[in-house]
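Help wanted!
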Amino acid sequence: MAIDPKKHEMPTQDPKVRARNFKEVALGYSEEVAVAEANRCLNCKNQPCVSGCPVNIRIPEFIAKIKERDFEGAYKTISATSSLPAICGRVCPQESQCESKCTLGIKFEPVGIGRLERFVADRHNEFSNEKPDVAPANGHKVAVVGSGPSGLTLAGDLAKKGYDVTVYEALHTAGGVLVYGIPEFRLPKSIVKKEVETLKAIGVKRETNVVIGKTLTIDELFEMGFEAVYIGSGAGLPNFMNIPGEAYKGVFSANEFLTRSNLMKAYKDNPDTPIMRGNKVAVVGGGNVAMDAARTALRLGAEKVYIVYRRSMEELPARKEEVEHAEEEGIEFKLLINPVEILGYKNESDPRDPLNGFVTGIKCVKMELGAPDENGRRRPVPIANSEFTLDVDVVIMAIGTSPNPLIKNTTDGLEVNRRGGIIVNEAGLTSRSGVYAGGDAVTGAATVISAMGAGKIAAKAIDEYLSSK
Amino acid sequence: MYKIVRKKNLNPTVTQMEIYAPLVAKKAKAGQFIILRVDEDGERIPLTIAGTASDGTVKIIFQIVGTTTEKLNLKREGEYISDFVGPLGVPTHIDGLKRVLVVGGGVGCAIAMPVAEALNRAGAKVTSVIGFRNKDLLILEDEFKACSEKVIVMTDDGSYGRHGNVTLPIKEMLESGEKFDMIITIGPLIMMKFVVATAKPFGVPVTVSMNPIMIDGTGMCGGCRLTLNRDGEKITKFACVDGPDFNGYEVDFDEAMSRGRIYTDFERKSHEKFCNLLKNGGND
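Answered by r_m:
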């Protein structure tokens, strides 16, 4: 049988329609399409795809089960190594991970591994209430700081091994970046909720509204009887560019803009939490967060949304599918330009004019790519006398975050690096005995799956540490 | 869910509540704040902690200014609110202070009072100046008296205490040679700005308590950022993790006032809508 050179297409909402609603963009494979896509898998002996997965999902094995229409079996295979399959199937950058290693990808398009993972997880969530197997309680207590992808993964892994796990969350809802950061149209909150509920069903306890470093300290957690603590507190403090005008009304960090829309549900009609619905919006940055912010602004009713990125399309770090979706929806990519100043309204004759201090535009300079930097990426350099102004009323800064200082400031002996990231060894152990860390709190802003990978590694290390105690 | 253990109206627009939150109560220090949500899908709002009690309650005092505070005020003793998290922010620095002038304005007095109390407990001599628009809005006079050597009450219309704003007695005291290690002021931005301007010629350090718009309160959203002018350089700080207290001489008040008005229009409409809803509800 000849192999179809192309991946089966993911059905999506029509771009014109979806650009004005918050419903999920990608609709998911049907059973027939999933089986057909699974049949493209060559089931290679050396399984290159598995090495591309940060949590080493046994990919050919689960795909083989789809071929046999044993969808629940496929789910079991995935969930043996991944705690959050419905989420990863949606948000992982597969093109740079598992799918980048796919043998089929050498000549054709690789197998749609992410799409198949999503299909399996969604089908399970729809039809099965079966809980993962849990080992008998072993009496060891572990505290997890932060209920984002890293903390949830670790909690799931340890709970399955019989540990008594409590997850502490600073916000009012569990899920971390999965609920405050990633929008509904890319990752429906009902899916996050379902995954969190699954963890609850296997005994993971959850305490919301507790800020570790404030409400309780790491040392107090040990006093309370926890024998190990995992810090998965995420990235925290948003970066700004430190250019003039960033204090004008209408300049937001992507964290603030997305949190208002996602966590606080400001995208709904008559919300309690306000959000500025810009008419013309510039989003500065080229990562997934920038795409999320741009597409959220569009759905909130913006007439024009620009991505302002200082490098070219090739260097754009966002997931390929998100970039394609953004383009289809009409987001305009302003590449090789960099903001130098944000302009605001000022009525010289009337200091009480209510429009004073609101954003009117963003002054940018054109860039060209120069010599490669230490990471091999070509460094963008400004072109002299190339300044121009984009008229916008909202500017969203999506240029990364720095680790949150709350825990570092209240935990003696916890070492951090120059950027504030917690220093860990290869097993996720920090400079404090029994304290482990992973995810953005260690690396600075990265991906959901790398945070999950770190949670997995630390779970193994904590298991070894406590079972030998 | 967090129980409202006690509730009291301090004046027609200011309410005091004591909420059961033992973990917060155990840790809270003067100058820190909490964030609460009244109900599911409600807004997160920051409120400074006005005190704690040994029964695990945390006292908050708020002015009814918009939809969320209106909703909160409708809650009765014994009822619950969805979320209550804290204590957030850095406590007010009171160590080593011997002579302190505490200046509170309006509902800001609710936050100034625990600071005055903490100073008094630490052995400092406290003079308090508290200002209100009029007599009806006066709050916490007895509490201030209990922890201050001297209390001066000011009203804008002269209906109680002295006529005029808080800067009047501050200027008189400083001109007459009274010495303070520190002035700590909490109230409307415009008042704090003028307290700083009044103290400046005398070189007295001023600590101001900022209360900008925030969402998470843990340093994630950056909405609460403000600009400090330090040695000719502009520095961005986050009120939630770096504050809420700042050196009054460094704060860019005009910028903070402008930023504070970003959602004025939204808030007015939302409040009107909510009030109409209440009215219609009353007709059923």
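OP: Thanks! One thing I noticed: Residues 94 and 177 of chain B are 23 Å apart (CA to CA).
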